């Protein structure tokens, strides 16, 4: 930043001293991403509303500065992390965490971009409502929109895009165009739905400053079971049959491989092995939920039991075993996997998806091919079988003696992504989005005509790529 | 069309004689829209696949011709109708009606753009599946995507956008760019989701040639009731309470005004008045559906009865009366309205939406203000209260003696739209899209910066507005 002090003084004069952080100690927490990404920022600026964001954009244009939007800094592809130049300005939405405006009869809520998912749900709970995108972290709503977060209950509730009924955006062009797309309507086909372009584009098309979200009745009951399919292939039959018999009640269908579960039992002893015999090759966590109470005549445990009984009947039945009613324990197991793999070794993590009809073939292929090429590697996969999402995480165990070098990790990643995209027509980023961590994959696997259009679009909204960390055009 | 014969001969040489229609008698059925729009076309060309669409685009560029995409020609805003110039070429997708490729385990179907909704559902039914966008007409899938069709079961299933997992598009630029966005993935955030731009843009951004749709389990049971709210205002309380108690089971919440119902009883005597006493000011058709069968322990009729009993308890209860279990009769009443209004008089039809929390205030305002201004006009409104959609149809009765002139109709439309958009922040096109019929409203009510961006986007995909009947930029 040329003449750093003068530009900062100008910014402080515009927005007040509380808006600007420039002390290196204060910056540290903003400069490093949750999993990837770590650099140095010129400063952090914290606007309170869209008008202040517009002032920041104009200030950045005047001084030729680059900007990065940052919510709760929980993203997993470094899209909100600065590079090493020390020139980028982080625009943090942490002072826009308070606006939560519920419209009970519309069943929608208007939120500031910085509002955290948990705060929103805390506010909705007394009204019997929730924003049902379910994930481990506590992101900001703006960040969730920029990543189009999916989560473990997508089967029932969809992703963020599906629940987004309005958006307020400030573009990073010279005018700092303020787009008010906040209708809050469920049915509106009165023109081009511009808000779609800011969903899942990693904050590189404009600053998201506020949103209108559809919210949902809080489930009044849940029924959970841990299923052991007869073979891995039977898992798809279980999915198909449960969808047909339980339909709109089916909320989660999460798969866990034996290797992944064993890691949890080993490194988190408080999670006990619920299986009587050996840990099965694959287990499925099934959850039904309903807004209707048992007093209304909907008894989810009975429904789930009845659906599972039909699946366990006969020698060739797809269901070998089912453990019912251990919701907390089952979700502890599921949510414990990611951390425990890190205790076991160096993790090469993947957030991929394929058509559900191809997911088992993909798994088989990867297990076999990876074992041949890198015998140390353990495939500890788990994921959202119900929506085709797979965290095909690979562990290079600490106790095998030889740690993997960077080149090997790179080879492994390329091997997996190449087969995934070219052979199985899957996605290299199911729910984490595109950021500096995986933008090379984006450039490698996106068809030339799509790259060209994406570049044109970005130039329209964000000329000179002044905002964000990703260039969606060809580099 | 300059040198018409030579250009047609060239087109026939490219695509074969069956592809081209130019006899005036053959053209007639393509030249007139269902409700609005009627003009003359240079010819109709009927491609069989995306490659042929590309050939048509290149041919049109060579000869400077304009193109219009047409599916089943059931749209309601004239977006698929030619103007009076006789210069436009209609590209009909009627020879792309056969590709229906079901992936049972992915619960998706790949369809050609010309496939009709009913053919698709006929094909899905034996598998226990359906494409649940529910409406009176039998449109093509490509047309449904271009209009982002909503329908009467949006509360449960969403609109077309929500069920679209892949798209194949041919742009109308000089290259006739072929965009293959057919992943069929439920979770995919590996770049800009370009397919969103072709949804709800009236076929003016590119030719939709194929799509991947998510399909759903066919409901195994339904429960229907006709509700009489204590007052019109109680209707919102009924909606809120039923959403909270029946949640994911609630599929439709359709409102019918007394004037609309009386029209049906008068002009379609086979639909009898189901109410014991007078026809109520407002009735609500409620429907629950479930993929779960009663043998699974889900009994929708019992659930609905129990939910309604709670709403009818006490003097101030929001529910005055409920007629259960007359599904066919209730839907006949609901679906009969639109036609019967035409028997009663000149209809000025509206397809509008507002936040649900504003819908009753909007109704009250319109009834009062319209009565003052145009005493002949009857407000015969009905619509999708559950999703904020309202067909605020106005009838100028045949039997009042004085038919309305064009200027009066125009005044009425402007009065309604102005109040709707400026005062109630609603949409002038909830589910019919934008076409020549209402593009003036689009230009009037869309903010200047949104118009500018929409125009930029259209230029990117469809330079010179060679394709389609709508210009989304400022004119």
Short account of what is shown:
The structure is a homodimer of 475-residue chains. Chain A is built from 14 helices and 21 strands.
Walk me through what this model shows.
The structure is a homodimer of 475-residue chains. With 475 residues, chain A is an alpha+beta fold. Chain A folds into three domains: 4-95, Uridine Diphospho-n-acetylenolpyruvylglucosamine Reductase, domain 2, CATH 3.30.43.10; 100-217, Uridine Diphospho-n-acetylenolpyruvylglucosamine Reductase, domain 3, CATH 3.30.465.10; 221-423, Alpha-Beta Plaits (2-Layer Sandwich), CATH 3.30.70. Chain A contains 14 helices and 21 strands. Chain A has helices at 4-15, 24-31, 50-63, 117-124, 141-147, 154-157, 234-246, 258-267, 300-311, 327-344, 359-373, 406-423, 439-445, 448-461; strands at residues 20-21, 41-45, 67-70, 88-92, 100-103, 108-112, 129-130, 164-170, 178-181, 207-214, 216-217, 221-229, 250-257, 282-290, 319-324, 345-348, 352-353, 378-379, 382-384, 389-391, 394-397. In chain A, the strands form five sheets. Chain A has a seven-stranded antiparallel beta sheet with strand order 15-12-14-13-19-20-17, sandwiched between helices. A five-stranded antiparallel beta sheet of chain A has the order 5-6-10-8-9. Chain A has a four-stranded mixed beta sheet with strand order 1-2-4-3, sandwiched between helices. In chain A, a hairpin with a 4-residue loop joins strand 19 and strand 20. In chain A, helix 1 (4-15) runs antiparallel to helix 3, helix 7 (234-246) crosses helix 9 and helix 8 packs across helix 10 (327-344). The two termini of chain A are 24 Å apart.
């Amino acid at each position: 930043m040329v003449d750093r002090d003068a530009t900062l003084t100008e910014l402080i004069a515009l927005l007040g001293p509380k808006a600007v952080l420039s002390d290196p100690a204060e910056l540290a927490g903003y400069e490093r991403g949750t999993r990837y990404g770590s650099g140095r920022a010129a400063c952090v600026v914290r606007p309170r509303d869209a008008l202040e964001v517009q002032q920041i954009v104009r200030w950045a244009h005047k001084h030729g500065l680059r900007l990065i939007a940052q919510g709760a800094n929980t993203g997993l592809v470094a899209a909100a992390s600065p590079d090493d130049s020390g020139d980028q300005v982080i625009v943090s939405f942490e002072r826009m965490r308070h606006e939560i405006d519920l419209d009970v009869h519309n069943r929608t809520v208007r939120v500031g971009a910085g509002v955290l998912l948990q705060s929103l749900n805390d506010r909705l709970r007394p009204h019997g409502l929730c924003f049902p995108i379910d994930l481990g972290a506590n992101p900001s709503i703006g960040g969730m929109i920029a990543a189009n977060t999916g989560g473990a209950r997508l089967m029932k509730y969809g992703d963020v895009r599906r629940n987004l009924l309005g958006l307020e955006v400030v573009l990073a062009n010279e005018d700092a165009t303020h787009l008010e797309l906040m209708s809050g309507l469920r049915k509106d086909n009165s023109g081009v739905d511009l808000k779609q372009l800011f969903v899942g584009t990693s904050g590189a098309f404009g600053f998201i400053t506020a949103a209108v979200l559809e919210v949902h009745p809080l489930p009044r009951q849940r029924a959970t079971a841990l299923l052991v399919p007869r073979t891995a292939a039977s898992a798809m039959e279980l999915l198909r049959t449960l969808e047909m018999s339980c339909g709109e009640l089916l909320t989660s269908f999460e798969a866990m491989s034996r290797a992944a579960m064993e890691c949890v039992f080993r490194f988190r002893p408080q999670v006990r092995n619920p299986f009587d015999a050996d840990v099965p090759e694959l287990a499925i966590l099934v959850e039904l939920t309903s807004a209707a109470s048992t007093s209304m005549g909907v008894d989810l445990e009975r429904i789930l039991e009845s659906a599972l009984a039909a699946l366990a009947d006969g020698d060739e039945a797809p269901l070998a075993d089912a453990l019912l009613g251990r919701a907390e324990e089952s979700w502890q197991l599921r949510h414990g996997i990611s951390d425990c793999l890190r205790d076991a070794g160096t993790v090469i993590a993947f957030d991929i998806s394929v058509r559900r009809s191809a997911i088992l073939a993909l798994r088989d292929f990867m297990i076999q091919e990876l074992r041949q090429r890198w015998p140390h590697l353990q495939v500890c996969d788990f994921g959202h079988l119900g929506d085709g999402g797979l965290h095909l995480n690979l562990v290079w165990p600490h106790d095998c003696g030889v740690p993997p070098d960077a080149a090997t990790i790179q080879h492994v990643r390329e091997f997996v992504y190449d087969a995934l995209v070219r052979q199985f027509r899957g996605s290299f980023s199911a729910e984490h989005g595109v950021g500096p961590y995986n933008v090379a994959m984006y450039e490698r696997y996106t068809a030339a005509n799509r790259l060209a259009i994406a570049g044109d679009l970005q130039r329209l909204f964000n000329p000179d790529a002044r905002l964000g960390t990703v260039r969606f055009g060809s580099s």
